[in-house]
């Protein structure tokens, strides 16, 4: 870390985490996150208005906490970066407005960046500069995408979507199956834990979009809706017959079906594009089985796998700051002050112009 | 220098007050899009008033009631700027500047009401005395329930003439009057907390529905 590297503060409010991160170049200085997840638990999913209210309350305290942790004053910051999409419109807007207020008050540039690209850029804080091209598998409660990344700042078609989910996001499937099994929200960590005691080949759940016919049209796309229904049917049939539901086996078999499809398609995409580096990010990347399976199979193909530590995989401000720092380093033009929040921002638009 | 803004109505409004009077003000040219319009309007008003953020000694912000998404844009902007610049935030009920403007411009004399659009066929409403002092906390309800023959200031009266036949004065809050009222000590100053008046729309889900029962079962 040198003083020449840009000091960037990043803000993330696209869902239920209020994140403020501070980086200097590729060095993480602070990653403050306030989550409203507890307030959503009884609703079984994120309630947008509840999340937006929580962002407003958490915003300034989280900025303060990030500065304290990093040991920097806001006046030292060289640039502000903020997620301006995609995500929940009202939630995004709180972060965007706060970021503009920072930029305006400090007289510093603002970079409105894409949430998905930030999930990829965060790995630079852990494993150094991202090899370009890389293949990125982003999986969370909100997204399931396969991206070819030739320039993480988005120049010249820098982020190219090869595939995405056609129905539920992978993390959503974890939440829904957890609910079926009586496990708490968010489901990911609870399924992961339950699965450790179970047998992953106990039940043969379907792998979405892997039949020959589906592969013709959806080679790199995902579908988790059919899997979710299959689990529901299996559990219900079991309950009707009066037999106990083997929670651990269902969790392990479901998790295996998700991870199998994700890894299979990601490695197929990497091989077909001749890419040797696979980056896995998003909340589901914290899943222990996904990491193991990806590394096991990738090593046989000579593909390197990069997975940031779990705390950096879930939504946070550090990932936004990391992408912002790369924007500064590569001399990209800052965003205008009338930068909008765009809930359906396409992944190809990495920086708001 | 006091910077004032309100985002509780469809129109973003910003003003700068130098302690003597308003030296610059700007109003959004189109409705809504608060998140896009507020920061550029603040930059414009500061430039027009020959000021920089460092010259600010306080921020006045309308805390609603008003549509939540826009309201939060104003509040998070006020809180963030105040944090960076280390100046106080004066929160003001967004109906109060309408009342002050109505009294000071002679649109009303005696007691009156202020009503603004709360969407969903409802209005936000509070009552005021002849000196523009608010007499109660604002409420949200259907116009028919709140109907009154007293003079009513604000867009609520224009939208629902059957309930509020005596419409008067300004339609939406102006940051210039927000600034004047704060400088003159005419408002009850509140914390910069949003006056939502409504709970979030959220339903607690029922038990997982039975897929075998409501979907055609596979043979
Ligand atoms: Zn995410």
UniProtKB/TrEMBL annotation, chain A:
Location(s), subcellular: Cytoplasm
GO biological process terms on file: tRNA threonylcarbamoyladenosine modification
Residues that, per the record, bind substrate: 138-142, 175, 188, 192, 287
Coiled coil: none
Assigned keywords, A-Z: Acyltransferase, Cytoplasm, Iron, Metal-binding, Transferase, tRNA processing
Catalytic activity of the protein: L-threonylcarbamoyladenylate + adenosine(37) in tRNA = N(6)-L-threonylcarbamoyladenosine(37) in tRNA + AMP + H(+)
InterPro entries listed in its UniProt record: ATPase_NBD (IPR043129), Gcp-like_dom (IPR000905), KAE1/TsaD (IPR017861), Peptidase_M22_CS (IPR017860), TsaD (IPR022450)
EC number(s) reported in the record: 2.3.1.234
Cofactor(s) required for function per UniProt: Fe(2+)
Pfam families: TsaD (PF00814)
One term of GO molecular function: iron ion binding
Annotated cofactor note: Binds 1 Fe(2+) ion per subunit.
Binding-site positions, Fe cation: 115, 119, 315
Family membership: Belongs to the KAE1 / TsaD family.
Free-text function comment from the UniProt entry: Required for the formation of a threonylcarbamoyl group on adenosine at position 37 (t(6)A37) in tRNAs that read codons beginning with adenine. Is involved in the transfer of the threonylcarbamoyl moiety of threonylcarbamoyl-AMP (TC-AMP) to the N6 group of A37, together with TsaE and TsaB. TsaD likely plays a direct catalytic role in this reaction.
PANTHER family per record: TRNA N6-ADENOSINE THREONYLCARBAMOYLTRANSFERASE, TRNA N6-ADENOSINE THREONYLCARBAMOYLTRANSFERASE, MITOCHONDRIAL
Protein name: tRNA N6-adenosine threonylcarbamoyltransferase
From TrEMBL, chain B:
Gene Ontology annotations for the cellular component aspect, listed alphabetically: cytosol
Domain of life: Bacteria
InterPro entries: ATPase_NBD (IPR043129), Gcp-like_dom (IPR000905), T6A_TsaB (IPR022496)
GO terms under biological process: tRNA threonylcarbamoyladenosine modification
Pfam families: TsaD
Protein name: TsaB protein, required for threonylcarbamoyladenosine (T(6)A) formation in tRNA
Species, as recorded: Nocardioides simplex
């Amino acid at each position: 870390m040198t003083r020449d590297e840009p000091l960037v503060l990043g803000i993330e409010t696209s869902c239920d985490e209020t994140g403020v991160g501070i980086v200097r170049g590729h060095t993480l200085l602070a990653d403050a996150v306030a989550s409203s997840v507890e307030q959503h638990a009884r609703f079984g999913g994120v309630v947008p208005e509840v999340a937006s209210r929580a962002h407003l309350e958490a915003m300034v305290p989280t900025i303060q906490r990030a500065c304290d942790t990093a040991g920097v004053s806001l006046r030292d910051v060289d640039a502000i970066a903020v997620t301006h999409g995609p995500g929940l419109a009202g939630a995004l807007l709180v972060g965007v407005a706060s970021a503009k207020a920072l930029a305006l008050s400090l007289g510093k540039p603002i970079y409105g960046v894409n949430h998905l690209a930030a999930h990829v850029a965060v790995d630079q804080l852990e494993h150094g500069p991202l090899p370009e091209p890389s293949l990125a598998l982003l999986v969370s409660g909100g997204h399931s995408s396969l991206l070819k990344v030739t320039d993480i700042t988005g120049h010249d078609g820098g982020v190219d979507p090869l595939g995405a989910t056609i129905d539920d996001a992978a993390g959503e499937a974890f939440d829904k199956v957890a609910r079926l099994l009586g496990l708490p929200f968010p489901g990911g960590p609870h399924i992961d834990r339950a699965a450790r005691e179970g047998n992953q080949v106990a039940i043969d759940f379907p792998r979405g979009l892997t039949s020959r016919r589906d592969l013709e049209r959806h080679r790199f796309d995902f579908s988790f809706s059919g899997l979710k229904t299959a689990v529901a049917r299996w559990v219900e049939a079991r309950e009707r017959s009066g037999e106990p539901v083997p929670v651990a086996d269902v969790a392990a078999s479901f998790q295996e079906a998700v991870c199998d499809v994700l890894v299979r398609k990601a490695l197929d995409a990497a091989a077909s594009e001749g890419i040797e580096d696979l980056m896995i990010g998003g909340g589901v990347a914290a899943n222990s089985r996904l990491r193991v399976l990806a590394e096991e199979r990738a090593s046989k193909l000579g593909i390197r796998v990069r997975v940031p530590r779990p705390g950096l995989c879930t939504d946070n401000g550090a990932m936004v700051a990391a992408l912002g720092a790369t924007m500064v380093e590569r001399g990209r033009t800052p965003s205008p002050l009338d930068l909008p929040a765009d809930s359906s921002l396409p992944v190809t638009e990495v920086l708001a112009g | 220098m006091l910077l004032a803004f309100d985002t509780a109505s469809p129109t973003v409004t910003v003003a700068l007050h130098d302690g003597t009077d308003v030296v610059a003000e700007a109003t959004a040219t189109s409705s809504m899009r608060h998140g896009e319009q507020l920061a550029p309007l603040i930059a414009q008003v500061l430039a027009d008033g020959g000021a920089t953020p460092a010259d600010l000694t306080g921020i006045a912000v309308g805390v609603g009631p008003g549509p939540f998404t826009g309201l939060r844009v104003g509040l998070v902007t006020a809180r963030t700027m105040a944090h960076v610049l280390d100046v106080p935030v004066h929160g003001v009920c967004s109906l109060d500047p309408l009342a002050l403007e109505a009294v000071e411009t002679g649109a009303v004399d005696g007691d009156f009401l202020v009503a603004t659009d709360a969407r969903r066929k409802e209005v936000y409403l509070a009552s005021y005395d002849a000196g523009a002092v608010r007499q109660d906390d604002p409420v949200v309800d259907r116009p028919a329930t709140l109907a009154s023959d007293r003079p009513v200031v604000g867009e609520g009266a224009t939208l629902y003439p059957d309930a509020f036949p005596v419409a008067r004065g300004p339609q939406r809050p102006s940051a210039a009057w927000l600034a004047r009222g704060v400088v003159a000590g005419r408002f009850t100053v509140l914390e910069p907390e949003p006056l939502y008046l409504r709970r979030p729309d959220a339903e607690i889900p029922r038990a997982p529905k039975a897929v075998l029962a409501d979907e055609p079962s596979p043979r």
